[in-house]
């Protein structure tokens, strides 16, 4: 109700329990990279369908009920393509979201399927009316038009426990993040325009599910 003019970037980010759902999934990246460094992949440690660490399943683990519900949903249905929608920027990001060098805030960290992820992100970004507009201006200080309005998540800012990385490593689902708009809280009157900006992108993205082996 405050509208975008009076709401900061952190408004609505955390649940009632104080958990940021966007960073609440199990960190499978660190376990994989440690195993790779010790030459344990793939004969002793898998590089896909990585199991959830035991600590994450404990009753006292800081895992939101919403996160547990989504994980159960992902395990029940074998999704292969997914997108989660955010606000506050105009860009499409793709895994990995966590930088391989743990102390680096930004580092290009591609997956073995980087070409496919870049294609999926590009399909969405090029059909998005706001991103593709010739009058497009940066939302903040990052000019994503230089990169075609897509970026490797870790090369933007590192995130441990993201849904994208978890989906990819735990269930083999190819998931991207779509930052829909510079405005995190558009007014009701602006929603029809937001829908038009994203309608074709959503349809084209879903069609990519047919591009497999």
From TrEMBL:
Active site: residue positions: 179 (proton donor/acceptor)
Any Gene Ontology biological process: proteolysis
Coiled coil: none
Keywords: Carboxypeptidase, Hydrolase, Metal-binding, Metalloprotease, Protease, Zinc
Domain of life: Eukaryota
Residues in Peptidase M14 domain copies: 1-209
Cofactor(s) required, per the database record: Zn(2+)
Cellular component aspect of the GO annotation: extracellular space
One GO MF term: metallocarboxypeptidase activity
Record Pfam families: Peptidase_M14
InterPro entries assigned to the protein according to its UniProt record, in alphabetical order: CARBOXYPEPT_ZN_2, Peptidase_M14, Peptidase_M14_domain
Protein name: CPXM1 carboxypeptidase
Organism: Loxia leucoptera (White-winged crossbill)
């Amino acid at each position: 109700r405050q509208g975008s003019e009076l709401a900061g970037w952190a408004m609505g980010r955390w649940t009632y329990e104080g958990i940021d759902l966007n960073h609440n999934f199990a960190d499978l990246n660190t376990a994989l990279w440690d195993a790779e460094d010790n030459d344990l992949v793939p004969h002793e440690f898998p590089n896909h369908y990585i199991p959830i660490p035991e600590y994450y399943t404990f009753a006292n683990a800081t895992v939101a009920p919403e996160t547990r519900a989504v994980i159960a949903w992902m395990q029940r249905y074998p999704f292969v393509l997914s997108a989660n929608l955010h606000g506050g920027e105009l860009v499409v990001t793709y895994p990995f979201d966590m930088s391989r060098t743990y102390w680096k805030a930004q580092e290009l960290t591609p997956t073995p399927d980087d070409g496919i992820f870049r294609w999926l992100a590009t399909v969405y970004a090029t059909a998005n009316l706001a991103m593709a507009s010739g009058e497009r201006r940066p939302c903040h200080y990052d000019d994503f038009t230089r990169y075609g309005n897509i970026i490797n998540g870790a090369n933007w800012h590192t995130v441990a426990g993201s849904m994208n990385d978890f989906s990819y490593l735990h269930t083999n689902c190819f998931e991207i993040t779509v930052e829909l708009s510079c405005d995190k809280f558009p007014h009701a009157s602006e929603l029809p325009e937001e829908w038009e900006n994203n309608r074709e992108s959503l349809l084209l993205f879903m069609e990519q599910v047919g591009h497999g082996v």
